[in-house]
Amino acid sequence: MTMDKAYDVVIIGGGPAGLTAGLYATRAGLKTLLIEKGVIGGQIANAELVENYPGFPDGISGFELGQLMHQQAMRYGLETIGAEVVALEPGGKTRLVRTSDGEYVARAVIIAGGSELSKLGIPREERLTGKGVSYCATCDGPLFKDKTVAVVGGGDAAITEALVLAKLCSKIFVIHRRNQLRASRILQERAFAEPRIEFIWDTVVDEIIGDERLEALKTRNVKTGEVSTLNVSAVFIYIGFSPNTGYLKGLVPLDSAGLVITNERMETTTPGIFACGDIRHNSAKQAITAAGDGATAAMATERFVREQG
Ligand code: NAP
Question: For strand 79-82 and strand 32-36, is the pairing parallel, antiparallel, or unpaired?
């Protein structure tokens, strides 16, 4: 183990929580490494326009917001690597972080790994991903310009992305398993006013039809049991998130959904291990609350590192 792989703090995850923790930790003078397995910005990097992050009255692209947060933290010395964390081992004075790109030693670890979009788990969903099945309207929407597409889900993500698609596609069916949306009122009002969006209520998708590409969806009305075929060029799936906590089982307390349990200082019950953002039990799952969590976690981490001497 070389000394340059030893840090005061290792942050796992480069979304708003991890990047804000990185900003606060580096400004507190802690040698800090951030490990991100995907894109800097995390889930928010896929958002075409973030309208509810204070300070940007006209909204800001999620990708740009992530990049700006990263630049700000790097200015104070945040180091970043692209790797996946595969194991975390608590120790006495230090903790070992095993990644796909080697091992790192840290006096404290901040888990900010967020969550991944849930899958429907239906036939051909995996095989046709990238061939009509998508989890990112901002990325893949332009491929389906002037086409008919479907969105599955009724939360903020599904409705936000349906509105993004309404600027590109000729028709968007929003398929929701209930007859009432979960999305916030402002998004609902916009979607109901958008003539290109049509809702299919009380309906689930049982199967994706297509061989080389998605051709249609097999849907079922959960109230009547009626089965239908919906011809679309693409389906965009937004049915919530699952936390990235598989490698944490037995190490820190998790709730029944796999989210990390912390106190209000973002401390887990395992000394030197903190958690913040969407991965945390009771998180409001907003970019701004994740950023607030990240600041709180870094401040608690600083206290811990200084007290350990
Ligand atoms: P969410 O709020 O958990 O909504 C998931 C939606 O998918 C719900 O409508 C749910 O139906 C449906 N669903 C879940 N499992 C399903 C299944 N197996 N089959 C069919 N439908 C299923 O998730 P989200 O929309 O991804 O949002 C997550 C968090 O991020 C929220 O806190 C949200 O506020 C935040 N967010 C905010 C914005 C924004 O402010 N613009 C944008 C994106 C996300 P039910 O309603 O019946 O449960």
Answer: parallel
The DSSP annotation for 169-181 comes to -SEEEEE-SSSS-
Answer yes or no: is 29 within a domain.
yes
Question: Which sign, positive or negative, has the C-alpha torsion 76, 18, 162, 139?
Answer: positive
- Domain end residue (candidates: 192, 222, 237): 237
3-class state of residue 150 by DSSP: strand
Give me the domain span that covers residue 156: 133-237
- Ligand 1 binding pocket (C-beta < 6 A) is 52, 120, 152-158, 160, 177-178, 182, 204, 238-241, 285
Asked whether residue 88 falls in the same domain as residue 227, the answer is: no
- Å from CA of 264 to ligand 1 middle: 25
Active-site residues: which are they?
136, 139-140
What percent of the chain stands above pLDDT 70?
Answer: 99
Q: How far is the CA of 1 from the centre of ligand 1 (A)?
A: 43
Ligand 1 atom 23, closest CA: 240
Q: How do residues 203-250 score in pLDDT, each as one tens digit?
A: 999 999 999 999 999 999 999 999 999 999 999 999 999 998 989 999
Output the domain CATH number for residue 173.
Answer: 3.50.50.60
